[in-house]
Amino acid sequence: MSNNLYEINQVQIGLYFVQTIIATTPEGKLLHIPIDSGNTDYQEYLQDIKNGMSIVTCNDCGDGAPNDSMWQYLDNAEQLLTDKYGSDPSLHDKMTALREDRYVRAMKAEFPYENMKDAEPIINATSQEIKDKYRHLPMRR
Fold first, then answer.
1. At 141, is the pLDDT very low, low, confident or very high (cuts 50, 70, 90)?
2. Which of 23-27, 67-71, 97-101, 135-139 has the lowest mean pLDDT?
3. Could you tell me which residues are beta bridge partners of residue 31?
């Protein structure tokens, strides 16, 4: 485990916006990490966040879809969506997709909800409508 701090950032490259991860090392060095499973710095990021998302900050949820940057597991994920898409008619769909992603991962005991202590608040807070949609998932023990 490193002692890096991470910031999920969105940058514009030409006409496109791309999310990247900026790592700040304990020495103050900045590393720009592409979200690429083949990148060793990205693999280190994934290992580091298994110890908790408190080392990650994010101010922009990109297109609002859950992705490999893992912004969707931050405590402020719903606020990020509301801030960016508050008056957009797509906010409801984006919020539902976020909640569904969290619920499915919690029920399957996948990162970051492997531990029932972490999964239980997500499962309990999930609407009955989403639970019914995913009733085919086995009950978590």
1. low
2. 135-139
3. 23
Is there a contact between 122 and 131 (Cβ–Cβ < 8 Å)? no
Residue in the structure block whose two tokens are 């090392």: 25
Cα dihedral sign for 85, 89, 92, 95? negative
Nearest Cα to 111, choosing from 70, 77, 75? 70
* SS3 (DSSP) at 27: coil
Residue 140 near residue 107, CB atoms below 8 Å: yes
Task: Read off the pLDDT of each residue in 77-86 and give the average, rounded to a whole number.
Answer: 96
Q: Where are the domains of the chain?
A: 5-133
Q: What is the dihedral of CA 131, 137, 139, 140, to 10 degrees?
A: -100
CA neighbours within 13 Å on the CB side: how many for 65? 5
Given a cut of 80, whether residue 119 has pLDDT beyond it is yes
Q: How many residues are recorded in the chain?
A: 141
What distance in Å separates the CA atoms of residue 57 and residue 69, rounded to the nearest whole number?
11
